[in-house]
Write a structure and sequence with these properties.
- The complex is a heterodimer of chains A (288) and B (246).
- Chain A is built from 13 helices and no strands.
- By secondary structure, chain A is mainly alpha-helical.
- Chain A has one domain (2-271): ABC transporter involved in vitamin B12 uptake, BtuC, CATH 1.10.3470.
- In chain A, helix 3 packs across helix 11 (207-217) and helix 4 crosses helix 5.
- The longest helix of chain B is centred in the last third of the chain and has 16 residues, at 166-181.
- The chains are: A mainly alpha (288), B alpha/beta (246).
């Protein structure tokens, strides 16, 4: 048992690094994912993740596999797409989801083109799927910094974000923080996707954000509780995914997301707050 | 009585098209004012303007004796996401936003105020309920409780009694009476003329233009109501620039 659960981490430094980086990602991604779900923006997260690609690819084009350049490029591209699709939605008759889809599809194509022009298919795989087993010191510091910033940011934004989600008219009637709150939240989303991109790649980065949050929604009807459950599910997925990948030799990023997917399926079936098993063996209705 | 909000030749609208045209008048401190008029008369637009959510196209709104922060505003369609996991207590506590802000605690004192507000609207025992489980009437009571917590001297209500049963609307009207007794100024958009005649001393009858503003019995005279019905013209895409705006 010890050999299975602990020794991969005690013996191999890259496993320890992967675990630390993954836990940081899970802890900061969980609350962001919870708010994405509550704001009905689950697919926005996915679209933004794709939108980051051309920015990271441009960074890669100019500086190779450089952390700073790819991170900066990803941040800029993600925010540009978020702002531009919002602006198109406001200025034209196109709804936000349609304009976001248009922007991210173009971004994804652009990103893949740029990476393929310059690099090999291995580089492309790295960008698309990341490599959680190759996290160096600088990347770990980046992940930790983004996680800390995210938590501080969400602690500050918590009230306006909840109010803006549940009753936007009311917040607008008592304060002008709604606009800045939305923008700050989008910045946090992009930051977390860029962080996830280093470890899991553009395509899976959003998985560690959304799957634990979606699972949590099925267990509790309380925002604080959802964040706690989501963080727990995220951390457990990282750990179990790494162990599974170590034992089976399967790539670790996808394994982490697959484990999160298993948690999600279990929640869909057994979740106390809206899972399928609610209706099974239902007792008779109450008097009042 | 002294004016608390003064409207000077006020024109409000969207995209240069006026919805409310050249209104002049004063809302006095302690007024209980009803705004009546046919659909499309600009009642909601006027309330939005008073709440500061809409910039005037012409003229102005002087908040003589109150700041925008002194105004509590209940929009017509409260776009509350009822599926959001939040309970009645937290929802009512939002009324403290002005004073509690980002980090201010909800301590013993504020908790007591929230419970009093929940009691005042007759939702005792429901404070821990998720808002998604409330009926339409209960949800409206909850929004009234939040206004109680906001403790604002000026309260704007946009069709607050639409789709409510008699008992709920009676209870809420009683609360409005209490607000008036406390010296608050209440402006409400209402369609129920009998209720307005019974409860509201003053009325502004609106039909894009001001038809009448004064004692309710006079403002809602048959002649005025007929005039109001005739005055609501259709939205005109080709409208010329208003000569009175010069």
């Amino acid at each position: 048992m010890f050999d299975l659960l602990v020794s991969p981490f005690s013996e191999f430094e890259f496993m320890r690094r992967a675990l630390v980086g993954g836990v940081a990602l899970a802890l900061s991604g969980a609350p962001v994912g919870v708010f994405l779900i509550l704001r009905r923006m689950s697919l926005t997260g996915d679209a933004m993740a794709h939108a980051i690609l051309p920015g990271a690819a441009l960074g890669y084009l100019f500086a190779g596999l450089s952390l700073g350049a790819m991170t900066a490029g990803g941040l800029v591209a993600g925010l540009l797409v978020a702002v531009a699709s919002g602006a198109v939605a406001r200025a034209t008759s196109l709804r936000e989801d349609a304009s976001l889809a248009a922007f991210y599809l173009v971004s994804l194509a652009l990103g893949v083109t740029i990476v393929s022009l310059k690099g090999s298919s291995i580089d492309l795989l790295h960008v698309l799927f990341g490599n959680v087993l190759a996290l160096d010191d600088a990347t770990l510091v980046l992940l930790a910094a983004i996680a800390s910033l995210t938590m501080l940011g969400l602690a500050t934004l918590y009230r306006p974000l909840v109010m803006e989600t549940v009753d936007p008219n009311f917040l607008a009637s008592v304060s002008r923080v709604a606009g800045p709150t939305q923008i700050a939240f989008l910045v946090l989303v992009v930051m977390n996707l860029v962080a996830g991109f280093q470890a899991l790649g553009t395509l899976l980065a959003v998985g560690l954000m959304m799957l634990p949050a979606a699972s949590a929604r099925l267990w509790t009807t309380d925002v604080g509780g959802m964040i706690a459950v989501a963080a727990g599910v995220g951390v457990a997925s990282v750990y179990a995914g790494l162990v599974a990948s170590f034992e089976s030799g399967a790539p670790s990023g996808p394994m982490i997301i697959l484990v999160a997917g298993v948690f999600y399926l279990l929640s869909v079936v057994f979740g106390r707050a809206g899972g399928l098993s609610r209706g099974v063996g239902a007792r008779r209705h109450l008097e009042a | 009585m002294s004016a608390i909000i003064r409207l000077r030749d006020l024109t409000l609208g969207y995209d240069r098209h006026p919805a409310v045209h050249h209104i002049d008048g004063e809302i006095e401190a302690g007024d209980l004012l009803a705004i009546c008029g046919p659909n499309g008369a600009g009642k909601s637009t006027l309330l939005k303007g008073l709440a500061g959510a809409l910039k005037p196209l012409g003229g102005g709104i002087d908040r003589v004796a109150c700041a925008p922060r002194d105004i509590a505003y209940l929009p017509q369609v409260a776009e509350v996401d009822r599926s959001f996991p939040i309970d009645v207590f937290d929802m009512v506590s939002m009324g403290f936003w002005r004073t509690a802000g980002l980090f201010g605690g909800i301590g013993v004192d504020r908790k007591r105020k929230v419970m009093e507000a929940i009691h005042a609207v007759g939702l005792d025992g429901l404070e821990d309920r998720a808002i998604g489980t409330l009926s339409g009437g209960q949800a409206q009571r909850m929004l009234f409780a939040r206004i109680v917590v906001q403790d604002a001297p000026v309260i704007l209500l946009d069709e607050p009694l639409t789709a409510l049963d008699t008992r709920t609307s009676d209870d809420l009207i009683k609360l409005v009476g209490k607000w008036r007794a406390q010296g608050r100024t209440v402006v409400a958009v209402l369609h129920d003329m009998d209720l307005v005649r019974r409860v509201f001393p003053k009325t502004l009858l609106l039909a894009r233009e001001q038809v009448a503003w004064g004692e309710t019995a006079e403002a809602l005279s048959d002649a005025n109501l007929r005039r109001a019905r005739q005055m609501v013209e259709a939205f005109d895409r080709e409208a010329e620039e208003c000569v009175r705006a010069a």
